Amino acid sequence: MILLDSSVLIDLFRKKDKTKSYFFNLLSEENDFAISTVTQYEIGIGNKVSTSDFWNELNDRLTILSFDQSCSIEAIEIYATLKRKNKLIDLADLLIGATAKSHNIPLATLNKKHFQRIDGLVLI
């Protein structure tokens, strides 16, 4: 299973030729994908009525991982480490990274710059 960051989903949506999207490339390696409830929220608030069918169909095909207690504990530890290093990242990215780490799955993102600050997070 691979956890998808919103950047991967937005790339898929924006590409007219879906075969040129990062997500399409991931399909050659894996066919089991998930998003965090944080990613679901990010996509949902940016969703327009004209594109809701696309996002709803995609949501139905993905596993949705809830931000639960183990994710929260992981996020607290990540936050403390990043704050100590003076390298804090956007809260949503921190929560998505914590979800991937707590479920022990890699994260696919087009925003590696922020996520690579999280120790032990496997990025694709």
Tell me what you see in this structure.
- Helix content is 53%, strand content 10%.
- The longest helix has 16 residues.
- A four-stranded parallel beta sheet has the order 3-2-1-4.
- The chain is α/β, with parallel strands linked by helices.
- α5 packs across α6.
- The mean pLDDT is 93.
- The protein has a single domain, classed as 3-Layer(aba) Sandwich (Rossmann fold), CATH 3.40.50.
- It is built from seven helices and four strands.
What is the strand content? 5-15%
Name the CATH superfamily assignment. 5'-nuclease
Radius of gyration: 14 Å
CATH class bucket: Alpha Beta
Give the neighbour order of strands across the main sheet: 3-2-1-4
Helix content: 40-55%
What is the CATH-assigned architecture?
3-Layer(aba) Sandwich
CATH fold annotation = Rossmann fold
* Number of DSSP-assigned strands: 4
Structural class: alpha/beta
Order of helices and strands: EHHEHHEHHEH
Query: Which stretches of 5+ consecutive residues score pLDDT under 50?
Result: none
Outline type: globular
The span between the termini is: 12 Å
Overall pLDDT, averaged?
Answer: 93
Sheet of most strands: 4 strands, parallel
Number of helices: 7
Count of the domains: 1
GO molecular function: hydrolase activity; metal ion binding; nuclease activity
Domain PIN: 2-120
Family: Belongs to the PINc/VapC protein family.
InterPro entries: PIN-like_dom_sf, PIN_dom, Type_II_TA_system_RNase
